[in-house]
Design goal:
single chain; alpha+beta; Herpes Virus-1; three-stranded antiparallel beta sheet; 3 strands; 22% helix; binds zinc ion; zinc-finger
């Protein structure tokens, strides 16, 4: 999928701020929004898979999948949450749950 213009791209530096953690840990953080498959590649997660957590909506994805997706699309693949610098809600307290 080709982006229409450069405005649609999300800065990889911003993407890298989203925490990466094991899937089973991520599921503890997002209780009630359990995500069992990656919405980008549609593969099921294993408990020990490393996932990247989108902190503003609680969805998780394979790091490689979401990195590429966000770089091209700038929206959450599940809810189509639109990322904008001003709407970026990175929650640093998530990291206190353990190694990201
Ligand atoms: Zn994936
Ligand atoms: Zn989402």
């Amino acid at each position: 999928m080709e982006p229409r213009n450069n405005e649609a791209r999300l800065d990889p530096a911003i993407i890298s701020l989203f925490p990466m953690l094991r899937h089973h840990k991520a599921m503890k953080l997002v209780e009630g929004r359990r995500v069992t498959e990656c919405a980008v590649c549609l593969m099921d997660f294993a408990d020990n898979d490393i996932v990247r957590l989108l902190t503003m909506c609680g969805h998780v994805f394979h790091p490689d999948c979401i990195n590429l997706w966000l770089f091209l699309n700038k929206i959450c693949p599940v809810w189509h949450f639109i990322f904008a610098a001003t709407a970026f809600l990175y929650d640093t307290h998530l990291c206190s749950f353990g190694p990201c």
